[in-house]
Amino acid sequence: MKRFLLTMTAPMITLMAAGPATAQWYGDHPMGWGGSGWGWGHMMFGGLMMIAFWGAIILLVVLLVRWLGGDHTHGEAFPRHKTPLQILQERFAKGEIDKEEYEERKRLLSD
After folding, report:
1. How far apart are CA 16 and CA 8, in angstroms?
2. Which member of 6, 27, 60, 77 has the greatest number of CB atoms within 10 A?
3. Which domain holds residue 54?
4. What's the predicted TM-score (pTM) here?
5. Same domain, residue pair 46 and 85
């Protein structure tokens, strides 16, 4: 998971650092807009990129918190507790108790 985060964040940081260098083109327009005929369409693209940027940052924070969070229940809000019958079956399967004891305890639990 650490390798995944490193391979995902390193290119993003590089692209974010290189972004301002590409934004310094002034062109021929006195205000620095270049007069290339783009119109107002670049404003919509900028808004979408801002949403994508913040979405990526929020996603990275959520993934980092979940990764560092500790006990993973794999989709369950609370870990399920075993029933006494399940514990008895596990003990019998491991050989901790014999068949007679298993049958007796199973009968007691079912009553």
Report:
1. 13
2. 60
3. 2-68
4. 0.34
5. no
